[in-house]
Amino acid sequence: MNTSPKNAPSGVSKAEPNTPSALLPTYARAELAFERGSGAWLTSTDGRRYLDFAAGIAVNVAGHAHPHLVQALTEQAGKLWHVSNVYRIPEGERLAKRLTDLTFADVVFFTNSGAEALECAIKMARKYHAANGNPERYRLITFEGAFHGRTLATIAAGGQKKYLEGFGPPVEGFDQVPFGDHKALEAAIGPETAGILIEPVQGEGGVRPVPPQCLRGLRELCDKHGILLVLDEVQSGVGRSGKLFAHEWSGVTPDIMAVAKGIGGGFPMGACLATREAGKGMVAGTHGSTYGGNPLAMAVGNAVLDVITAPGFLENVQQMSLRLSQRLAELKDRFPGVIAEVRGSGLLMGLKMQVPNTEFVAALRNEGLLTVGAGDNVVRLLPPLIIGEDEVRTATEAIERAAAAFAQKSSNAA
Ligand SMILES: *Cc1c(COP(=O)(O)O)cnc(C)c1O
């Protein structure tokens, strides 16, 4: 056996273009790597500073290297990282109690990711009806443009061809209807329907908020048919919308809710929240996770919640959202050939582009601003929720420069 090293791989810190990587190439990665972060700012391995309006895709709600989170993690790291869920985990019980005190929910199951939170939500919705003596009620209605994760069940729930193709028969039990089509939705409810699964703001699908009156309509429909309202707040939750959870803007509550991304502030973590009634089928032995809710994750989760629930935190999100959306609306008016529409909720904002969103994301990156693309040719702005006026100004100035350059290019071409 040949034990000599293959072509010595160069480290990420060198970030040489076209260096073959040992990572499975499932991402089209930018030639950019980071060394450190502080607040809303990142420093790349080649020493450049970037304003981070991607936040690890809506994850770093408290920014990078937040002192309270760093302290919570390092203190816990010296005490206890992991024990099994076959024992009580006091930090997890504390976090679950705090989350239920703050929301509609009575019970929480902790996971390590958004897709796992959805898996729990989907299983719970099915089990609820089984526990009621209606095991035939296992189907969930979902919406076009949805994104619920990359596991086999969640790609079936999302229903996007590009994510399903080549992976065999999709998991059974999801019926997709067009986004915003109330008639199609009502027609899709049948004797096998367990519930409706929806993101209050479609994230990956292109930052499309569900109007509050529509969420209220969904709640009424669920009550009328005895089915469950299951919300995917993986991206819209944990302060992102300017409320702790986006559905709070509508005044109605779900039966089950999947949460992740922001909840760990960068520590891999998710949660499935539910009313005691909706969760009644999930008794001992029905579900599990080796890592979910371990002491290290729970210490960080509690610290993130300290930050999010501090007085004035969500007000800042709402104020910065207003400021940002006003400035973006001005830019849309000035560059109508570049930006078609500004949409979103809180600090989950989207620019629907007239130019290819990938090119605009790359142009913004060259201007020192990190953003992420989404479906429907949208550029997503997902800053850490701790941003202030300076960051809003710096970001909108970068967007202005990039938009001006695109406008210039197209006028030259004309
Ligand atoms: C990111 C996301 C998921 C999947 O979360 P993972 O942690 O990547 O598994 C599910 N739903 C929504 C709405 C998301 O934005």
How would you summarize the topology of this molecule?
Blueprint: E1 34-38, E2 41-44, E3 49-52, H1 55-58, H2 67-77, H3 90-102, E4 107-111, H4 114-131, E5 139-143, H5 152-158, H6 161-164, E6 174-177, H7 182-188, E7 193-198, E8 201-202, E9 208-209, H8 212-225, E10 228-232, E11 256-259, E12 270-274, H9 295-308, H10 313-334, E13 339-345, E14 348-353, H11 357-366, E15 369-370, E16 372-374, E17 378-381, H12 389-413
Parallel strand pairs: 3-15, 5-6, 5-7, 7-10, 10-11
Antiparallel strand pairs: 1-2, 2-3, 4-12, 8-9, 11-12, 13-14, 14-17, 16-17
Helix pairs in contact: 2-9, 3-9, 10-12
The chain binds pyridoxal-5'-phosphate (PLP).
The site of pyridoxal-5'-phosphate has 15 residues, from helix 4.
Characterise this structure.
By secondary structure, the chain is α/β, with parallel strands linked by helices. The chain folds into two domains: 5-60 and 314-413, Aspartate Aminotransferase, domain 1; 67-308, Aspartate Aminotransferase, domain 2, CATH 3.40.640.10. 36% of the residues lie in helices and 18% in strands. The protein has twelve helices and 17 strands. It has helices spanning 55-58, 67-77, 90-102, 114-131, 152-158, 161-164, 182-188, 212-225, 295-308, 313-334, 357-366, 389-413; strands at residues 34-38, 41-44, 49-52, 107-111, 139-143, 174-177, 193-198, 201-202, 208-209, 228-232, 256-259, 270-274, 339-345, 348-353, 369-370, 372-374, 378-381. A hairpin with a 5-residue loop joins strand 8 and strand 9 (208-209). Helix 2 runs antiparallel to helix 9, helix 3 (90-102) packs parallel to helix 9 and helix 10 packs parallel to helix 12. The longest helix is centred in the last third of the chain and has 25 residues, at 389-413. The structure holds pyridoxal-5'-phosphate. Pyridoxal-5'-phosphate is lined by residues 113-115, 118, 147-149, 199, 203-204, 232, 234-235, 260-261.
